[in-house]
UniProtKB/TrEMBL annotation:
Gene3D superfamilies associated with the record: Phosphoglycerate mutase-like
One Pfam family hit: His_Phos_1
Sample GO molecular function, one term: phosphatase activity
Region Disordered, residue ranges: 1-28
Classification of source organism: Eukaryota, Fungi, Dikarya, Basidiomycota, Agaricomycotina
Protein name as catalogued: Histidine phosphatase superfamily
InterPro entries: His_Pase_superF_clade-1, His_PPase_superfam, PGM_Phosphatase
GO cellular component terms listed in the entry, alphabetical order: cytoplasm
Matches recorded under CDD domains: HP (cd07040)
Length: 324
């Protein structure tokens, strides 16, 4: 398949490096931390999951699906051991230090991801990402999953069903679910969990993909989300129209880290959005999650479409800000 457009120069709104629409998640590198801790200092606790380091990414997600999402412990008691060890860390920690285990999932393949494979990354970043389609494919606004994307999400559900009898912490009294407001993440949430989704997923704007310019990242209305995903709970203050997406502005890594940190501070903080649960599922996007991992102090770890990474996190209040 060929297209008339030929890139003629660097588009200032192009992603560098391109990660948001790339199926592989881009190169094995991540942004440096561009912000200072606000309410909490976040640290990754290694020793539980392969993905958390110190070794860089060496296996694809199919391997992790065959190895309990990357758990280093491969004994039949692996999930019970994880829950026991995390509870022990919490019990022995200072009163204001918290531990949580995040399951960070990138949505399955969407039509914009498929379009990149057909068009090529350079013409996509220079021109096509800013269009709504090419006459053959439509990827904006807010594309849905392809059949491949649905299958990728269902592979996660199948793995959870295998792990549940071994004590995986996925009961609604153990885990809380969060999701980006974009359609592809809502679909991925549903397909990744199926009947295992016994709680109410919460929709937060802070989990969405890079704001602006790329039409695939323009969200639909609040009314559409409520109708399409009636079992989801939308956060307070959520606007009917997308007030964050602008056609001539592309969000920076620094700003994505600000809102990633803001969302984490809401989860760990003492306000109304505090999560009592130790285990947290977040279904989001490549660009969003690479910056969230940076805020957490995690090693660079590009997520392919449909990939999920578990992360054990320690949150320590920053002194002198009124939290501690």
């Amino acid at each position: 398949m060929t297209y008339d457009f030929v890139p003629s120069g660097h588009n200032p709104l192009a992603d560098d490096p391109p990660v948001a629409a790339v199926e592989s998640g881009g190169p094995n590198e991540g942004p440096r931390v561009l912000i200072e801790p606000k309410q909490f200092q976040y640290e990754v606790v290694q020793g539980f999951f392969r993905q958390n380091g110190p070794k860089p990414k060496t296996h694809d997600f199919e391997y992790m699906l065959k190895h309990s999402f990357g758990l280093i412990d491969e004994t039949p008691e692996r999930w019970e051991n994880l829950k026991r060890d995390v509870a022990k860390l919490q019990a022995e920690a200072p009163a204001d230090v918290q531990y949580k285990v995040f399951f960070l999932g990138r949505h399955g393949e969407g039509w914009h991801n498929y379009a990149v494979t057909q068009i090529g990354i350079e013409p996509w970043e220079e021109y096509w990402a800013f269009q709504y389609g090419n006459g053959t494919l439509t990827w904006g606004p807010d594309p849905e999953l392809t059949k491949t994307g649905v299958a990728q999400a269902q592979a996660i559900q199948a793995c959870w069903k295998e792990q549940a009898p071994l004590g995986a912490p996925i009961r609604k009294d153990q885990i809380r679910w969060y999701v980006s407001p974009l359609t592809r993440t809502g679909q991925t949430m549903q397909e990744s969990w199926g009947e295992l989704l016994t709680g109410v997923p919460e929709v937060w704007e802070d989990w969405r993909e890079v704001y602006g310019s790329h039409t695939c990242d323009q969200r639909r209305t609040k009314s559409y989300i409520e109708e399409r995903f009636p079992s989801f709970k939308i956060e307070k203050g959520f606007a009917e129209e997308d007030e964050l997406w602008k056609p001539d502005i592309r969000e920076t890594d620094e700003h994505m880290q600000i809102r990633g940190q803001r969302a984490l501070d809401r989860l760990f903080g003492s306000g109304p959005d505090h999560a009592d649960e130790t285990y947290i599922s977040i279904t989001a996007h490549s660009g969003n999650l690479r910056n969230l991992l940076a805020v957490l102090g995690h090693q660079p770890y590009p997520l392919a479409t449909g990939e999920m990474i578990p992360v054990v996190v320690r949150a320590t209040p920053v002194r002198g800000n009124g939290v501690a």
